[in-house]
Amino acid sequence: MNIPSPGHPPQPPAGGAVAGRSAIIRLAGVGKQFPARKDGQPVEALSDIDLDVPAGSVLGVIGRSGAGKSTLIRLVNGLEKPTSGQVIVDGVDVSRLPENKLRAVRRNIGMIFQHFNLLSSRTVFDNIALPLEVEGAAAPVIRERVERLMSLVGLDDKRSRYPAELSGGQKQRVGIARALATNPKVLLSDEATSALDPETTHSILSLLSAINRELGVTILLITHEMAVIRAIAQQMAVLDGGRVVEQGDVFDVFTRPQHPTTRSFLAAETGRAPPSFVADRLAHEDAPGMETVIRIIFRGRFATHPVLAQVSRELDIDVNILGGTIDAIGGKPFGVLIVGVPGGRDLSERFVSFLAARDLDTEVLGYVPASAFA
Amino acid sequence: MSLPALSLDILRLVGGATWDTLYMVALSSLAASLIGMPLGIFLATSQRGELFAAPLANGVVGAVANALRSTPFIILAVSIIPFTRLVAGTSIGTTAAVVPLTVAAFPFVARLVESAVREVDQGLIEAARAMGASPLQIVRKVLVPEALPGIVLGLTLAVVSLIGYSAIVGVVGGGGLGDLGIRYGYQRFMPEVMFMVVVVLIVMVQAVQSAGDYLARRVNRRIRRA
Q1: For residues B163 and B208, is the Cβ–Cβ distance under 8 A?
Q2: Residues A240, A64: contact at Cβ < 8 Å?
Q3: pLDDT tens for residues B73-103?
Q4: 10 Å Cβ neighbour count for B42?
Q5: Is the ipTM of this complex over 0.90?
Q6: Average pLDDT over all residues of chain B
Q7: A-chain residues within 8 Å CB-CB of B127?
Q8: Of B46, B49, B41, B69, which is closest to residue B59 (Cα–Cα)?
Q9: Of A106, A164, A188, the CB nearest to B222
């Protein structure tokens, strides 16, 4: 299945091709312990983390607060040192480098933050110039570079403004421009949109996506929102209790989540959970006169086939559509339908196997009285 | 006491003493800032896990600052007379008075600068580290500029305190407005002298505070301005 998505520039094919590229960030067997406070146990922030970020890709790490996301992203530029394992960025093991050598590596890694972390005492221009000043760049070089970055992020007219005079979205644009000032190969994004409203979030994510596509900057982002991952990432990892519990291609993880944590993150995504009028009446036990409520995930070869019509004809049943959504992830069609199947256990089992034969995933969510929606 | 003769002489006296006070306060403020600012920055950045982590040195400097600040100024001024003589060549006069004033004020400045620097958002330090800045660059380009409004207000407070302290150095032969007020206003019982001394001191403090507030506002970019 390869439907070119209209309106999108060609994206790097997700999955195989991306994974085949060499990793620009590689975490191998990484663990991080924080020393005990008073006479408590040491805190195991991360354990056994293996993660590859292919060069030129966008990888999103999702987790709840306290899952270890912040620690993980800070390992990459050496703001945190792992207790065990290796952190290799562009061929250099940053976990072994002393602080003064790390500084040179950090200039090759941009970082943006949830609360922007702009200097209130500096104008937009001077904030973006800071990494270049740190590097010791000459004034004409700084001016040329900063001006280009200001127009890249669309802030040419804010040159002499101070952060206090900017909106949240504008501040994050300054943050992005600053992170790109030294032409880094890698951009780390620490919850960069978590303090922004949905519309601004969307525009910042589009900007990051464009930077990844057009400048070839590899992006590693951490977030607690599936929508962020879905919007720009090709690869993802789910972090829970300091461990990577699931990782892979975003489409695969979204459409076939394996771990309960992943499922619970996805539950919030529209269309996956049954609508409230169904959920409220949902029973765990089957009984005569009940419809079986089944969630069907449409993906792969048959995603766009009229499967429901076929199964209705074949089994001679009236499938009741209760909810759902049809969408695309990374340009690949993907749908979720919640349906009610009448006629007891026998029919619903035949229904499920019919769909299974067409490579569609189903899950029985429960049972509702057939007359419930009459 | 005839009024016309009195006002001319008194004006001359008050004028001279005002100049002495300005001289002492200006010089000791400058010296206390030069010593206190770096110390304050050190205090704010040298605890465990900080930029220039040196917990032991931090503890020692902190303890010395506390000791100096808890000694009453009059005791401090008298007890360091040998040191004053060593630095200024004499222990009497306005120039000599600058020494105890400086010694009393620099720990105060250091603590004020420390608290201003500690107010700087940790996220900014992290951002600067992430862009590869060295600790010295972080101090120069992040901590000092970001803490500047607080530093200016702190220095203003220190100068105002120094104006108060300078009134005490008359006791150790320092001269200035305080000395004039005690000797003429109190000991010779000339309330009009005392009155003028107090008025000049109030005006001086007011002027310093207003200038400090204005400057702090000027350098504060955290406030939105139309």
Answers
A1: yes
A2: yes
A3: 999 999 999 999 999 998 888 999 999 999 9
A4: 21
A5: no
A6: 92
A7: 111, 113, 117
A8: B46
A9: A164
DSSP structure string for A96-123:
S--HHHHHHHHTTEEEEETT----TTS-
For residue A89, list its beta bridge partners. Answer: A25, A92
Three-state SS at A75: helix
Residue B152 and residue B155: Cα distance in Å, rounded?
5
Q: How far is B3 from chain A (nearest CA, A)?
A: 55
Question: Are A247 and A338 a contacting pair, CB within 8 Å?
Answer: no
pLDDT in tens, A45-67: 999 999 999 999 999 999 998 88
Residue in A111, A122, A135 nearest the CB of B130: A111
Tokens 């020393």 belong to: A35
Q: Are strands A290-298 and A332-341 parallel, antiparallel or unpaired?
A: antiparallel
Q: Which residues of A67-77 are buried (b: 16+ CB within 10 A; e: fewer)?
A: bbbbbbbbbbb
A79 vs B contacts (CB less than 8 Å): 126, 129-130
Does pLDDT of A4 surpass 50? no
Interchain CB distance below 8 Å, A111 and B127: yes
β-strands A320-329, A332-341 pairing:
antiparallel
Which among A103, A111, A119 has the least Cβ separation from residue B145?
A119
Cα–Cα distance for residue pair A139/A145, rounded to 1 Å: 10
Let me know: does A46 contact A71? Beta carbons within 8 Å.
yes
B111-140 pLDDT tens trace: 999 999 999 999 999 999 999 999 999 999
CA distance B174 to B161: 16
The CA-CA-CA angle for residues A248, A249, A254, to 5°, reads: 95
Closest to A125 (Cα-Cα) out of A145, A109, A100 = A145
For A10, the enclosing helix (H) or strand (E) is none
Q: Which residues of A touch B144 (CB under 8 A)?
A: none
Q: What's the whole-model pTM score?
A: 0.86
Cα A11 from Cα A269, distance rounded (Å): 23
Residues 6+ apart with CB under 8 A from A83: A31, A32, A33
Name chain A contacts of B142, Cβ cutoff 8 Å. 119
